[in-house]
Amino acid sequence: MSAGPQALSLSFIRRETVPAAPPPVLVSGPLAWARANLFSGPGNTLLTLLALAILALAVPPLARFLVIDAVFTGANRDACRPDVVGHPVGACWAFVAQKINYFVYGSYPIEERWRANVFFGLAAVGIGWLLWLDAPRRGLGALYVFVIFPLAGYALLAGVPALGLAKVPTALWGGMLVTLVVSLVGIVASLPLGILLALGRRSQLPLVRLVCVIFIEFWRGVPLITVLFMANVMLPLFLPGDVTVDRLMRPLVGIALFSAAYMAEIVRGGLQAIPRGQTEGAASLGLSYWQSMRLVVLPQALRIVIPGIVNSFIALFKDTTLVSIVGIFDFIRTIESARVDPNWAAPTVVTTGYAFAALFYFVFCFGMSRYALYVERRLAAGQRR
Amino acid sequence: MKTIVAALTLALGASVLSGAAQAQSTLAGIKQKGFLTCGSNPGLAGFGVPDAQGRWTGLDVDFCKALAAAIFNDTSKIRFIPLSAKDRFTALQSGEVDVLSRNTTWSMSRDTSLGLDFPAVNFYDGQGFMVKKKLGVTSAKQLDGASVCTQQGTTTELNLADYFRANKMKYEVVAFATADETFKAYDSGRCDAFTTDASGLYAERLRAANPDDNIVLPEIISKEPLAPAVRHGDSQWADIVRWTHFAMLNAEEAGVTQANVDQMKGSDNPDVRRILGTEGKFGEGLGLTNDWAYRVIKLVGNYGEVFERNVGQGSPLKIQRGVNALWSKGGLQYGPPIR
């Protein structure tokens, strides 16, 4: 069989070059991104167009109100009245500018306000120390945030006559100062307390378990607003006549216990997700209960529940506005008092006040959620393959 | 767990501060504390508003300052405790505040069943109407068939119904949940008239797109005598609150003002001499010193000055004296003689 030459003659030999293939559809650049993410199909295209239409409807009036037509300077209501200035007036930022000290400090005595500023500084140091994951001596940072800062902060704000700091009654505290105090107390108290309650609820000891279950279910079963009313309206009637509890302290304790109960359930969710083998493994290494919790179980459990914890912190931060209805002058309450000032009575002043509040809360809550995302991504790095 | 409970108990215990003892008289308690605690309004135009630095100003605030002036000769010795409408009476009953000065209507049920006393009326308020000028309405009696903006579930709504029924007029209620919404609706033309307490009408009018397009009608359809309140059972303290107000009225009547009070001290007019304590021992009868009223006028002013400064012509509100004028000028403010 001489198939060889025949087969050879049938073999295909390309004699000319292949025509160039058309260039690939854009894979990089803004146009490609838009095509892949915004117009990848008829459904997506429709949604994109809808979103654009909504933005086109909402953004220009908002921009006009907040920036273009807004009044930034002025000494009184005349600056923000359309019938005086002769053109439409948007947000009256002059009002916010004039009242800003009140919004930040409330009625805190003017000559003592440096103490509030130091408090803000101490809080920033503590938060930065604990949140910056590569910060040096973070163990010391935790001690600072959970022990030293609350004590120092209280001494600073309330005053210690022995140290030359005049007493400032809490009735004078107000504004962002109170909002931060209430939410920091809630956050600082609720995390450790919540972890202890969660551990207690899973304890082998029936009495401990019972106490924790009752505590958690009680505080979860009543609305926060009821707790606050109870604290500020009912409690004074129950106490003997010569005993009064500070007006700010009452809702503070209420909020701390309330958020601790929620935190306990979040942490318990994380604990339940950890396989039993982890505890058993820790025990077989000779670790005690607390050691195994601290070194093995909690680090894993807490990482799982970071979204839940942050969610709860954000909710707590916004819930602090509820203290305003029991007469605590938090940030929102200062806006509500200031907006009735007849010297600043103008059509847009109320809206401006609330827009300012929205901005304030948004910045803080958005910051918290972005930070949580960053931490999650970083702690989950070991799991990514 | 035990440690948590112990820690909580400790925390609660530590926060319990002993307040002023209830057994002693209110005045002795105030002197011992070194300051007056005043239940104030958390924000009402002209009556209790924080200024840019958070210091309280207003008619009700000035009344507390007058009390502090009478007791301490120092208007800074006050702690204002802003109270919501809900917790104001509890705060007074429980001794948290010495006096409640926050536009509280004096009514029989409050006077008799809450354990309170209302020593003197420092502002006669009442529900009124505001309409757009272009309607050409000059009296509430012409409001037949009008739509009226009002706040839901308030006595305002009930008063409105009573008034229109009594005058055999038809009307249509347009009710809203909050005061802000109600006024916005009126201002944007949803209804012909807007109703709330007269002092509130003047405050809201300022927020209108064009304040001058709106007028407040002369009719007042309800009685809202706003008075400071004290706990029942301490007559001496109630006397101090009552006579502080009367002294400010008498000073206005006698022409004693913040500016001329020092000259007036040398006056020969026996009325003036008795008010300012250069004659008689009237202050001692209250448990204060005889120049108590002099200090009130010197540091705060007479009633007319306080009125004009906070709600009258000296303020953006520009409320007319009306029924709050002195009795000698056709109003209801009548100070019994200091004699």
Automatic annotation (TrEMBL), chain A:
Cellular location(s): Cell inner membrane; Cell membrane
Transmembrane segments: 46-72, 84-104, 116-135, 142-166, 172-200, 207-231, 251-274, 354-375
Domain (ABC transmembrane type-1) ranges: 176-365
Bilayer disposition of the protein: Multi-pass membrane protein
Any matching Pfam family: BPD_transp_1
Signal peptide: none
Transport among keywords: yes
UniProt keywords, alphabetically: Cell membrane, Membrane, Transmembrane, Transmembrane helix, Transport
Keyword Repeat: no
Family note: Belongs to the binding-protein-dependent transport system permease family. HisMQ subfamily.
Full protein name: Inner membrane amino-acid ABC transporter permease protein YhdY
Gene coding for it: yhdY
From TrEMBL, chain B:
Similarity-based family: Belongs to the bacterial solute-binding protein 3 family.
Top-level taxonomy: Bacteria, Pseudomonadati, Pseudomonadota, Alphaproteobacteria, Hyphomicrobiales
Signal peptide bounds: 1-23
Protein name: Amino-acid ABC transporter-binding protein YhdW
Name of the gene this protein is made from: yhdW
Organism of origin: Methylobacterium isbiliense
Origin: domain of life: Bacteria
Keywords from the UniProt entry: Signal, Transport
A Pfam cross-reference name: SBP_bac_3
Domain Solute-binding protein family 3/N-terminal: from-to ranges: 35-264
Keyword Transport belongs to the record: yes
